[in-house]
Amino acid sequence: MMQRLDMRLICLLLPLVIEGCAVDPIVRREPGTYEVFGKKYKVMQDSLGYREIGIASWYGQKFHGNLTANGEIYDMNSISAAHKTLPLPTFVKVTNLENGKSMTLRVNDRGPFYEDRIIDLSLAAAKQLDFEQKGTTAVVVEAIDEMNYPERASEENNGSYYLQTGAFSEKHRALLFLQAIKALISQHGYEFNIRLLESKIDDGSLHKVWIGPIYGELHGYALKDIIEEAGMGKPVKIMVD
């Protein structure tokens, strides 16, 4: 009887033991390197000048809600990507060579761990580049130096600017719009200060929503594209002395 009971306990506990022994396939060896399925990868020191042509794929439901390599929660309905060796995070421009569509996105995860693929996009990004049905496509991936190293851009441009995304006579409408803009650009992996400014006019006040300060033209172009594609107006560039 005791032997049977012990065996039952073992059978009940074995799945828990096995599950508890499961490990992340990414094994970190020393700073700047990691290992997956026995293969060692070395992370680039920087992304300056990076450009590569290859195959892109996408990952979705199986990984939805899991932690990414830099500790964020993967959301297949947001814009993001995984790369084997680019520093995290890195902003890149990805162009689908089969249809000419391109987009800017943020790399925040590791993968894809297939020899013939260079980047893994979220489902939302794959939809924007129009290859979610096919599964893979030929792409050009280019690091956007101006966005990844804004301090260099600020030194070169010697100045900054703002984007005015809306102006409202009613403050509560301006606040709602500010929150919507903040959520939109956050979904695309951007982090910028968004502020509400009040200007006095003849018949009251004007409440303006500004993004910034912004260094470098590429940041501004990317933000404009995101906001306009979402149908939230056309941002206006504001220079401040």
Automatic annotation (TrEMBL):
InterPro entries cross-referenced by the UniProt entry: RlpA, RlpA-like_DPBB, RlpA-like_sf, RplA, SPOR-like_sf
Keyword terms of this UniProt record: Cell wall biogenesis/degradation, Lyase
Keyword hit for Amino-acid biosynthesis: no
Gene Ontology annotations of biological process type: cell wall organization; peptidoglycan metabolic process
GO MF annotations in UniProt: lytic endotransglycosylase activity; peptidoglycan binding
Region forming the signal peptide: none
EC number from the UniProt entry: 4.2.2.-
Membrane-spanning parts: none
Cellular compartments per GO CC: cell outer membrane
UniProt cross-references to PANTHER family, sorted A to Z: ENDOLYTIC PEPTIDOGLYCAN TRANSGLYCOSYLASE RLPA
Role summary: Lytic transglycosylase with a strong preference for naked glycan strands that lack stem peptides.
Sequence similarity: Belongs to the RlpA family.
Descriptive protein name: Endolytic peptidoglycan transglycosylase RlpA
Organism: OM182 bacterium
